[in-house]
Amino acid sequence: MKINTNSNVYTYVYASVLVVVVALVLAFTAVSLQPLQEKNVRVEKMQNILQSVGIDAQFEEAEKLYADFVTKQYAVNVKGEEIDADAFNLNLKTQFKNKPEDKKLPIYEATLKDGSKKTIIPLQGKGLWGPVWGYMALDEDFNTISGAVFDHKAETPGLGADINKDWFERQFKGKTIFDGDKLISITIHKGGKGAAKLAGNEEHGVDAISGGTITSKGLERMLKEEWLFSYSEFLKKNKK
């Protein structure tokens, strides 16, 4: 029987078969690539944690370096008590939305070649267009910042997107997050280069990104009440 290729039935059947075939191909591709995607996310996370303590790791060496230098990973609650949780695989976006009493807060400890120990705290917050996040490494006094890295999902190039630039991240090194026994974290001062100095807050402040006021304020909230302050009790218990 000759098929009428001009009929509506033929068109519907052909389109349906095509949709099914394309869907199967896409599903197969997604499933096949999932392990690679998960590895990319895991390794990038390791790279960021290492970078916060001054170790620049290439993709292919990140897992080994992470195993060499990161000696402990665990989680605490808002009371600063260690809890049973898989720290590395905790979803920070979920923890960010949780009530304080339900938060599970990851912590990483690294021992460097010179024997010094660093405590790394992951960060999560909200920028102008999407999430911002990062890692802050503290010296053994649990007060002095030894390094920080930040990133974003969809901030404006040249403005808020600059939070992941070296010149911005370098400002945090050597700053302190306590004023006496009070946790105050870091204030981001609007006004261009030298704004923190002009405000008389060089010890606990950095200069904001020019033109990126909303992102800078989102980052500051992340470093204060929205996230870092969840670690208050843990930091106070360990501060020297």
Shape label: elongated
Q: Tally the beta strands.
A: 10
Classify the helix fraction into a percent range.
Answer: 25-40%
For the biggest sheet, the summary is: 6 strands, antiparallel
Look at the structure and give the mean pLDDT. Answer: 86
| Succession of helices and strands | HHEEHEEEEHEEEHEHH
User: What's the arrangement of strands in the largest beta sheet?
Assistant: 2-1-3-4-5-6
Q: What structural class do helix, strand and pairing data support?
A: alpha+beta
Unreliable spans:
155-160
Strand content of the residues, in percent?
15-25%
* H/I helix tally: 7
How many domains in all? 1
- Rg, Å, rounded: 23 Å
For the record, give the distance between the C-alpha atoms at the N and C termini, rounded to a whole number: 88 Å
Briefly, what is this?
The chain is an alpha+beta fold. It has helices at residues 8-52, 62-69, 92-97, 166-169, 195-198, 213-222, 232-238; strands spanning 70-76, 82-83, 105-111, 117-126, 131-138, 145-152, 178-179, 182-183, 187-189, 205-207. It contains seven helices and ten strands.
